[in-house]
Amino acid sequence: MASEDGFSDFFYASQDGLKLHARIYGTEPGHGATANPDSCPVVCLPGLTRNARDFHELALHLAADPQKPRRIICFDYRGRGQSAYDPNWQNYNVGAEAADILAGLDALGVTQAAFIGTSRGGLIIHVLAAMRPALIKAVVLNDIGPVIEPAGLAHIRSYLENAQRPTDFTDAVRIQKAVHGEAFPALSDADWRRFVRAIYRDETVRPVADYDPALINTVLAMDLSQPLPDLWPQFGALASVPMLAIRGANSRLLSAATLEEMAKRHPRFEAITVEGQGHAPFLETGELPDRISAFLGKADAKTI
Predict the structure, then answer these.
(1) The dihedral sign for the CA sequence 210, 213, 214, 215
(2) What pLDDT, on the 0 to 100 scale, is given for residue 2?
(3) Which tens digits make up the pLDDT trace of 115-157?
(4) 200-237 burial string, b = 16+ CB within 10 Å, else e?
(5) 3-state DSSP call for residue 39?
(6) Which member of 37, 40, 48, 291 lies 3.0 to 4.6 Å from 120 by CB, making a disulfide possible if both were Cys?
(7) Alpha carbon of residue 288 to chain centroid
(8) Before 263, cis peptide (omega within 30)?
(9) Do 245 and 269 touch, CB atoms closer than 8 A?
């Protein structure tokens, strides 16, 4: 049953027994209407420390499309959001998380979907392309590609390692602006407030980052002095499906050169560069919801 917020909660078990969570949008009248059978479902995969709440506004938009209302599935990875924490932090890896997504989709009976992946989510899509290529009908990559810039990872590690705990949500906005504001001059005050409500859970005393603190160990374990492996072979496995790549103009993680190379290697490729935003663009802002909806519509119609 969908809540007044327009989604229902779905819980399922991972292969190793963790209780995992996803939000489901667009399955009931009044909440985006019943999904159109001609529209493939959309699976939304968030970034490293993020959760299903990142996609709330976009999911509502896609679920309520007047021509093609869709079923939207937004996952919380293990250790994030409403999913259980893993007692072994080394299981916070892309391979395990991809297997968790497959387990969730199997439990939901989803055999094919379009995928939207922000940062970590885009890496998981690359892995899914190798594990179960027939599952993927179309792909939206949000500020991620086969080559990850070390400077971007170093920035992520720095702000996670030195993260301040806010006293309240106003203080949370101050903290996030101090870390990300230079890369995101296009954001409004409302955007920042919505952002902090997505990344912190509201506890009785003060906001708390909504992920297992042990997750940071995975970032600290990276040796950024060594060249990072690329994912061009996995990217090649996505060449048969339509792809939309979104890059923040100020991104430190996805370079303009990598985006250009992606366009050369993929025959069904579109790209959007978002001015005034960095890693990773807020998908509910500006024209992005309509652009994403139009891309998915073309993918449904096989006109890309």
Answers:
(1) positive
(2) 52
(3) 999 999 999 999 999 999 999 999 999 999 999 999 999 999 9
(4) beeeeeebebbbbeebbebbeeeeeeeeeeebeebbeb
(5) coil
(6) 48
(7) 14
(8) no
(9) yes
**Residue that has been written with the tokens 């079923």 in this structure:** 71
- Secondary structure element (H or E) that encloses residue 170, with its range: helix 169-180
Residue 44: per-residue pLDDT: 98
How many Å apart are CA 161 and CA 163, to the nearest integer? 6
Percent residues over pLDDT 90 in the chain: 85
- The beta-strand segments (E) located in the chain are 7-13, 19-25, 42-45, 72-76, 113-118, 136-142, 200-202, 207-209, 243-248, 269-274
Main-chain phi, psi angles of 103, to 5 degrees: -65, -40
Retrieve residue 57's tokens: 């506004």
- Distances in Å between the alpha carbon of 93 and those of 10, 88, 168, 246? 22, 11, 31, 24
Nearest to 138 by CA among 148, 147, 125: 125
Q: Which domains, from first to last, does the chain contain?
A: 7-301 (3.40.50.1820)
